[in-house]
Structures are given as structure tokens and as C-alpha cells.
Write a structure and sequence with these properties.
Layout: E1 5-13, E2 26-29, E3 37-39, E4 43-49, E5 52-59, E6 66-72, H1 75-78, E7 85-88, E8 101-108, E9 119-124, E10 132-134, E11 144-148, E12 159-162, E13 174-182, E14 187-190, E15 203-211, E16 217-222, E17 229-238, E18 241-250, E19 254-261
């Protein structure tokens, strides 16, 4: 009889909030040749692994490659562990549903060549689209946010941003990834501690991220955020190069911002 335990992860599509749509999607554990047991709801299970920390990798033509570090406990303690969730970002080949809200950009280097694997993120700057507001101030090092006026569902793996307390237009957003959300107390637990300090009433704003493909194409898919039209701040960065743009988004449409050239300094 094996003395191993079970490693379970749940994969979630960031567009549909459901299981991944790619039947050819490959899920592996680094250093293991074991094939996972695939379950409904996007669950993948690797039985008979020894307790420890493993790297779970996901490869797909429809989603960007993703890696998740998972620590599994001895079987006696495994019942108390929460199943980790990995949210998959669609690639440019993803079959977006009709009526999706999309932003496309072509990223190129200073010599005009396509720039692959460049990070792009956009967060909604319209406060009326906030997912919620801080019910009490949150200090650097905290991993819990007490929220008020929460609109809709907050899911494990969701990404949001908080802005610095100075409220400057060029303030750098702090990305917050949700580890869990207690709807009864309206408390959001983050995967990593906050780096900055935020006052009561600060907005938790929707954020989407992606990376450019081998052709330099970047696509960002937005959800529904209360308003049919809203503003986003688009930030493109790789190494020391970066640029920021303000873009107006209309729900249910495709916006093409054209070519963005990485110049080596922020614009």
C-alpha cells in the first residue's frame, strides 16, 4: 500500500469562471511522469505523492502557460487543506464568446520587430466600477481586507488593484490576488501581504493581465463592471522598458489600440 498523499488543484478560466475549455490542455507536476486524474469542475488530482512542495505546470494553445507552487501535507492533515486554484489567462487563440469586451495591442521593439512575452496589465480607473471599498484602513504587511459595498462575487484567484494614498494619476497600482473571501464578514484574504498603506474607503478595482504572443499580439479580456463605458489604465512593461496609456472601454466591443513600441523608458 502506498504511503503517499493526494495533490489536487482546480483550474479556472478567467473569462467564463468555469473549467478550462481546451480538451488538449496538459497539466503536469515538475519532476513526475504521473498523469493526473481529471475531474469535472476543472479539478486535477495526482495521487500517491509524498508530502512536500511541488510545481504544477499548465500548457495549452488556448491559455498562457502557467505555474503554481503547491504544498501538500501528510494524509492525516490533508482533509483540512483548501484546494488551490489556478486562474488561466486566455491566449490570442482563445475562442472568445460573442459580445466579449476585448482590448488588442501589437507590441514591438524599438527596431519594429514583434516583442513576445511582454507583460500587459490594465486596471479600471472609474471608481463607480469598484468591486468594493475598504471598510477599515489596511497597512503594509496585512493580508486581510475588510470590505464594504461589495458588488457581485469575489472568487479565489481573482486579481484587483489598490492605488497609493496620494491618488496621483501616475501612481503605481498594487496588485492583490485573492486567496479566499468570507462573504459573511466581507473579509478578503490575499495571497501575499500588502506593500503599501491604504485608507478606509479606498477602492478595490478590477484588473486584468496578460502577455504578448510570438507575433507581439496582446489581448486583454474585461468583465462586466457596473458601467457600460469606463476608463482603464493600460501598462506595458518588460525589463526596463515600459509605457502607460489611458483607454476608454465600451462593454461588448473590441478595442484596438494599434502598435505600442517599447522604448526603454516610461512614456
Amino acid at each position: 500500500m502506498s504511503n503517499g498523499t493526494l495533490l489536487v488543484v482546480q483550474l479556472r478560466d478567467s473569462v467564463t469562471f468555469d473549467a478550462p475549455v481546451d480538451p488538449a490542455l496538459a497539466v503536469t507536476v515538475v519532476g513526475s511522469t504521473q498523469q493526473p486524474l481529471r475531474k469535472s469542475g476543472g479539478f486535477y488530482a495526482f495521487p500517491n505523492l509524498q508530502p512536500g512542495t511541488y510545481q504544477v505546470q499548465v500548457q495549452s494553445n488556448l491559455y498562457q502557460q502557467a505555474t503554481l507552487s503547491v504544498t501538500i501535507a501528510p494524509i492525516a492533515d490533508a482533509w483540512n487543506m483548501q484546494v488551490p486554484v489556478l486562474v488561466l489567462t486566455p491566449s490570442s487563440q482563445y475562442p472568445f464568446p460573442y459580445g466579449s469586451t476585448l482590448l488588442y495591442a501589437m507590441i514591438q521593439s524599438s527596431d519594429g520587430a514583434p516583442a513576445a512575452d511582454v507583460s500587459g496589465q490594465a486596471f479600471v480607473t472609474s471608481e463607480t466600477c469598484a468591486k468594493g471599498r475598504l471598510g477599515q484602513s489596511a497597512e503594509a504587511g496585512s493580508q486581510q481586507l475588510k470590505l464594504l459595498r461589495v458588488a457581485g462575487l469575489i472568487r479565489t484567484g481573482d486579481q484587483y488593484c489598490l492605488l497609493g494614498t496620494d491618488g496621483a494619476d501616475d501612481a503605481t497600482p498594487e496588485t492583490c490576488t485573492v486567496a479566499s473571501f468570507d462573504s459573511a464578514t466581507q473579509t478578503c484574504t490575499l495571497q501575499t501581504p500588502l506593500q503599501g498603506n491604504y485608507p478606509r474607503g479606498a477602492c478595490l478595482l478590477p484588473m486584468v493581465t496578460s502577455r504578448s504572443d510570438s507575433r507581439g499580439q496582446l489581448v486583454l479580456a474585461f468583465g462586466n463592471y457596473r458601467n457600460s463605458t469606463y476608463q482603464v489604465r493600460l501598462a506595458i512593461a518588460t525589463g526596463g522598458a515600459g509605457t502607460v496609456r489611458e483607454v476608454s472601454i465600451t462593454e461588448g466591443t473590441t478595442i484596438r489600440v494599434g502598435s505600442i513600441t517599447m522604448t526603454g523608458s516610461s512614456n
